[in-house]
Amino acid sequence: MRPGLFRVTILLFVAALVYPQTDTVSSHHADPDHIAAEHTEQEDESPQTAEEEDVVRLPDVEVNAKKETTEYITQEQMEREGSEDLWEALRHTPGVIRDGGGGMRNESNFTVRGFDEMLMPVFIDGVPMAMPYRGDGDHARFLTGDLEGIEIQKGYSSMLLGANTMGGAITMRIARPKKPFEAFFKTSFDIDNIGKIGGSTHILSLGTKQDLFYGKTTLQYRDIDHYRLSEKFEPVPNALQGTGERLFSDSTDLKLTLLAGWTPGEALDINLTYVYQDSNKGVSPPEITNKAPSFDVWPTWKRQSVSLNGAYTMNTYYVKALAYFDKYDNTLSKYSSWENLAKGNETHDRDYPSDYDDYGTGGRLEGGYHFNSWNTLEAALTFKQEGHRDNKDGTSTKDIRENTWSLGAEYSMNPWKPLTLTAGVGLDVLSPQDFWSINDYKESGPLWMLSWQAGIFYDLTPNHEFHFTYARKNHIPTMTARYSDSMAVPNPDLKPEQAYHYELGYKGYFFNKINVTTAVYYSDITDLIAEKQVIEDGRQIKKRFNIDATAFYGFELGAELYLFKYFSAGGALALNRYEVKHNEEGQDAIGNYPKTTTNAYLVIRAPGNAFTTDTPY
Description:
The chain is mostly beta strands. The protein contains 4 helices and 29 strands. It has a 20-stranded antiparallel β-barrel. The longest helix is centred in the N-terminal third of the chain and has 7 residues, at 75-81. It is globular and about 70 Å long.
């Protein structure tokens, strides 16, 4: 939720719950499409009563043959914490630092252990969601009412995902129907601290699961009118922004998700997914020190994705295939003053208006083989083509097309029941295809990158796990970093970023009530891309360059408490540090990197789930 708001939710269950509590992703869940030999004794560790099966509760810890450091946010968690988009859902994850919007693009983004969204890609069922040209996105636009859960991997992440997971990866899983008929409606209202409605969100979902097929439709609409500034906010004299409501904090989001699946047998599942997003967000909040600010407006923010997934699973092996096409349209206009905004007089110069016409298409072929009870091998071949076309006033100024190939493999060995050893390796190749720019500068060449990782996982008891992991990951500089000449100096010679991650962690479940995760981490980075302001051709613009050596390190602690079905609470603490070891450009500081982040929440649910409140602290 945004600052200064609390959320009231009304649920209407027309037929069956869309998100049954008994079939959710657990906090240490292994992907059901993967081959994992579950320890059956774990099922007796935390039995559910008939009453508990229909309430929101913390996920149990499971011990599976497939080991990973993934953290999970279930739909049940998002429901009880009042999260309605990806940006909100991440707020209680240790190590996540959120940027609450603003700046030139008025976007809601985040960093995880110092790695921003360009280095921590977001996927929806394997489809990358980053804008091809800039490599990022506005994560408040990704509504989560159609999801089963969110998976967060930090540093040590799956080699099967493909390129550019230098800081890890975030995967959103679309929920599938589980009953013959499901119908669900939800309405929530955001109320500010003076009792005024700041916005509303509406979700309607219909689904069915039959013997040979299944289908689901989810329609989401959110209309945010405003959020209120802190009572302690003191505006600059004569500034446009005063106390009370934050200027231009309005937005609307429409998301339609269509899912259709065919299951001719227990081993085969083929499904087609279509996702449509249309957003309209407020202009960038003006700088409070500027009496005559300029305004950026996005008359167009649309995304359409279609994907075809197939999975064939047998006792000893599985095969999965993915093909997708993702289209992104974005228009950015500028108004030089408040008066011009009111009159609709756009600025027309070398940078504005800007019209992005981007697409991404590709696929993945993945397979795994379970040699015996303690040896599993998985591998994936991924192809991605990304294209960007930049238009100004109807004239094309830039046209880029690039291919990326990735080959990844992971091996898991369980020589002794409590001990699991893992190893992975990946090869990524960037192959530029077409490049044209109205400005005369060179194209970057092909890039080859290797990555690898290893992990040791030890189960002290079925509910307590320790792990130590190491991962070497890479990131290809984005098209923007290499080619942008809008308020920046193009630098096609930027080198790939590299990170070496070390983590010692623990996960535990106490008394069937308390979930605890903690980790100590150290990430050594070479050639991290940074930027600074320079003067060129009489104007102040950005210059991007590689920092020679940098390190992120820290400590994380997360805990959740479930006392009974009407009460739950949780919190997270992260101690963050960084060090710029050496940099020929003279850069010695990294912005937006607080040393300590902490949050806590308390959720009280009214009987019957008809009325809920979420109060974050």
